[in-house]
Amino acid sequence: MRDDIAEFARITGVVPGTAGPALPWGDTRAAYGLDLPADYRAFVDAYGPGTVGSRLTPLIPLPPYGVGTGVAALGPVLDVAAEIGALLRGLREKYPEGFPYFFYPEAGGLLAWGGGVGGEQCFWLTEDVDPDAWPVVVWDRADWRRYDMGMVALLNRALGRQDAFLDELVGPRHGEPLWNPER
Description:
This is SMI1/KNR4 family protein. InterPro entries: Knr4/Smi1-like_sf (IPR037883). The strands form two sheets. The protein has a five-stranded antiparallel sheet with strand order 2-3-4-5-6, covered by helices on one side. A two-stranded antiparallel ribbon has the order 1-7. The chain starts with a helix and ends with a strand. The chain is globular and about 45 Å long. It has one domain (3-173): 3-Layer(aba) Sandwich (SMI1/KNR4-like), CATH 3.40.1580. Helices cover 33% and strands 17% of the residues. The chain has helices at residues 3-12, 28-32, 38-47, 75-94, 151-159, 164-170; strands spanning 50-52, 56-58, 110-116, 121-125, 136-140, 143-147, 179-181. The protein is built from six helices and seven strands. Helix 5 crosses helix 6. By secondary structure, the protein is an alpha+beta fold.
């Protein structure tokens, strides 16, 4: 098990491996023209869809996906990411000073991987050819923050209350679960 997934399990108290069958990740480049970071793939396979804390929902394929569905289950996730990119490109045209990034599917653009109930968005900055080198960028109330870490490390940092900017992103309430799987 990856260290970041083990840390997520430790913080949340939720054992990984309950999401169902793993997606055939090797097919993503042929199907969609890109690979996704290894920590995201491991998280999807270990946990499936759900909400982190009481606010942040990662964009994750919905089960059931199996032999017949394969990597096609990822299509709707990338469609949502493209819609978010299109909306933000429109805002960038009107307010260029507030939107300093390109957006997927623009080359090197931000690719959305999650969003919060208050409009917050989490992205990978896809400038590197290696998706495991993609940093995370978080947008909240016109404030952009770059984190040189992967998605799961960012979730662990937020849940561990190690960053005031991220505290509200996941918004765990006292006594509520830190991971709420979608049923």
